[in-house]
Design brief:
The chain is globular, with a radius of gyration of 20 Å. The chain has a single domain, classed as 2-Layer Sandwich (HIT family, subunit A). A ten-stranded antiparallel sheet has the order 3-4-7-9-8-13-14-12-11-10, with helices on both faces. The longest helix has 18 residues. Helix 1 crosses helix 5. By secondary structure, the protein is an alpha+beta fold.
Amino acid sequence: MQIRKDPISMNWVIQEDGETSWPNLNACPFCPGQEALTPQTLYSHVNNKGDWEVRVTPHLRPLYRIEGELQRSGEGVYDKMRNLGAHEVVIENPDHHLRLSHLRDENVAQVLRAFVSRITDLKKDRRFRYVSVFRNQGRLAGQEPDHPHSQITATPFIPRRVVYELRSLQRYFSLKERCLICDIIQQEMAKQVRTIEWDDEFMAFCPFASRVPYEVWVLPLQHHHAFEEDLTTWERQLHFARFLKSVLRRLETVAQDYHVTLHTVPNLNAKYERTDHWRTLLDDFHWHLELIPIRLTSSRSYFLKDVYYNSVLPERAAEELRKLNIEPLS
């Protein structure tokens, strides 16, 4: 397995000669009592009865391998390297059927704490330039296996969409000496036509140019560049857990399947990171979660990828989600 770079789109693509299938197991490897079916535990939270409630392990079918070096090489105009990196699974709870949105607040906070711990640890490795956290909820989103889980990857490159964000945010800051996302938050809160939910710490809204119907962003009201440095206390983790649960439950009224992706700051300690490129990074980047619903009736994205067609105005989507009466779950 290797990673190849498209010199035109600048995308990094993982290339494999034949898809690796999941191991043929008779039981769910993420359920209690089946711990021997997964690699070693990297992180866990255990309750006062001695039972785990959150567990992180290496992926059973990893896209990246943590051993060795990059082995960069060229083939004429093309660049490639071996699939160096890390690929981990965050098993969010022991119950095979209990979604993240229906966990107790404390359990969601423990999942967030696992994210913080693993991002912080992986960023100590100077070979990795970016750490991604994402979850695929439901079969339409590619969830496999069914047991609720998130995934974490650490890569020797920064994903293209994040690179675009970094450049746009840096450009805006160089012109105005303000964070673009902070300005978006201020405008959205003032108009409140695309906002869905907010409190004194966080906000959820449908972006002005939403890519798909009911796309939602969740982010802190106050500026912070790094998720893993912002959510360090239990009180803040618990606060965000309550907020995130409510937003997810709103979203699940229109789409049971969706993607969640965390956008946080790149690894500034990376061996190959030239930090002079991101001199204002702590001031211009603002961490956020992107929630992308997958619906059978969802608007199509045209073949010229990254040009999207959305049949539901974000203003209407936000109003619909905002008006839902979501009863809190403890």
